[in-house]
């Protein structure tokens, strides 16, 4: 018979002590047992599945987001066992749980109103989408590897972004090496029917990127999944 992890044993022991105290105080045995079980179940961190890709899942664990490959483990001890179609199997302290896309386990969750955008691959095999920045038309390249929405300085001026006055100057790593950039916040970013406000972004000096990148500062606030060759974005 396998042994319980030490952390789990300590929790069961503590729950048992609380149950015995409850019994000594006259609490009914069934209620005391339920209290002990609830104490251990509550130790599961709150986990929401917000994105699915082949062999990978985007999990939100206690408010922190991670892209985990199957077999990888988060700092909170959540291991991704399997990324399926519409759900994922996770493991925590030896116990498996199935969580559906845009649903959560281990905490309260209310079903949100959703808006969905379906994006097809372009001729290069990339996901590209039409939308707008600050109300002005834009074509985006979806890039889950980009931390922020990113535009070049000429596009930034076209979108009405006063990056030199309102932005914070930083150095950015590009394919050509390090270059000057400005961290800014965009009033509005829209793709299809989904519009988000106050989106962190990066304005890169020069002509790169040629096409605005739709990075995780926008995508990370949505649910993502691939289905039938399409990328589905769902507003949560």
From TrEMBL:
One of its GO terms (molecular function) is aspartic-type endopeptidase activity. This is TIGR02281 family clan AA aspartic protease. It comes from Sediminicurvatus halobius. It comes from the Bacteria. One of its GO terms (biological process) is proteolysis. Keywords: Hydrolase, Protease.
């Amino acid at each position: 018979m396998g042994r319980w992890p030490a952390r789990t044993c300590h929790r069961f022991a503590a729950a048992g002590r609380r149950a015995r105290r409850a019994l000594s105080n006259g609490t009914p045995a069934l209620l005391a047992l339920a209290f002990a079980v609830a104490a251990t179940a509550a130790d599961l961190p709150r986990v929401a599945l917000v994105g699915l890709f082949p062999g990978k899942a985007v999990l939100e664990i206690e408010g922190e987001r991670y892209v985990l490959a199957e077999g990888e483990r988060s700092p909170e001890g959540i291991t991704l066992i399997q990324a399926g179609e519409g759900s994922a199997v996770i493991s925590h302290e030896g116990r498996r749980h199935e969580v559906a896309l845009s649903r959560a386990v281990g905490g309260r969750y209310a079903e949100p109103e959703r808006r969905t955008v379906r994006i097809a691959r372009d001729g290069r095999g990339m996901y590209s989408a039409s939308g707008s920045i600050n109300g002005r038309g834009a074509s985006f390249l979806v890039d889950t590897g980009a931390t922020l929405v990113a535009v070049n300085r000429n596009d930034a001026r076209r979108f009405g972004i006063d990056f030199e006055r309102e932005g914070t100057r930083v150095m950015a790593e590009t394919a050509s090496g390090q270059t000057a950039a400005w961290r800014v916040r965009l009033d509005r970013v829209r793709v299809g029917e989904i519009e988000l406000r106050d989106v962190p972004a990066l304005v890169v000096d020069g002509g790169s990127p040629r096409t605005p990148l739709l990075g995780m500062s926008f995508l990370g606030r949505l649910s993502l999944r691939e289905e039938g060759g399409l990328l589905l974005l769902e507003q949560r």
